[in-house]
Amino acid sequence: MKSGRVFPLLLSALLITVGGGYWLLSSAGTSSADTRTTLPDPKIAQRYAEKPNPLGDEGVADLVGSGSNDEWACSSCHGEGGEGSLNVPRLAGLPAGYLIKQLNDYQSGARYNDNMQFVVKGLSSDELIALGHYYAGLETPPSAKPAFNGDLDRGRQLALEGDWSIDAPACFSCHGSSGWGVGEIFPGLAGQHPVYTFTQLNDWHNGDRSNSPIGLMKSVAGQLSRQDMQSVSDYLAGLVPPQPRTEGNAANPVDGSADQAHQSGDNDE
């Protein structure tokens, strides 16, 4: 990182909890009642994950495989193993809390997608929680591969190192050393379908997606060109996807090597 250069989001605001609300501190380190605002709970995904699965895997199996009433079966789009395809995301192995938050955001309108709005509108809170835990526990072989003919070296740089000449931090600085995610808040990126990853980056970039409590992804994606987004999406697609967590196990391996996990270009076709 260049001397004196710090990710602009960290310069512009620091977020701390104060009496149930949040204070935004300016880069000068000052605060006042005028700057106080109420923001979404940045730990809501963790709170969702702490709720036990109220239905059990067997109880959610019909919902996944057959649907319920007017709701489509999850597997009709996301595959029997949560593997996804093209612009339908891989769900297998993603954090339960993250998945539950996204389902709730679709239901509330904080995140928008026509299909997902239709699917979740009739689901109960218990069903949303059960679905998150169900997909978090799946172990499904990788199926993604690069789709954009992106520059994999550039994608690797953005994922592992970032590019401070454009104020872009490394993807893995938040999403874990192998792109397997961190905790319940930061989802795994490795092994995700590149069309989906690109679409999400582009939506963050354009402001079409905004369900991050402190706007972190909008700030990151806003620094990337279309070519950068395609390159990093292709690079991430070639990594081994996250594996299901076991109770008490960390979300991401601290000693995993993303380069060792990356598939060679000769195997991408």
UniProtKB/TrEMBL annotation:
Residues 31-62, 237-269 are annotated as: Disordered. Residues 54-139, 150-240 form the Cytochrome c domain. InterPro entries: Cyt_c-like_dom (IPR009056), Cyt_c-like_dom_sf (IPR036909), Cytochrome_c_Oxidase_Subunit (IPR050597). Gene3D superfamilies: Cytochrome c-like domain (1.10.760.10). Residues 260-269 have a biased composition (Polar residues). Keywords: Heme, Iron, Metal-binding. This is C-type cytochrome. It comes from Salinicola lusitanus.
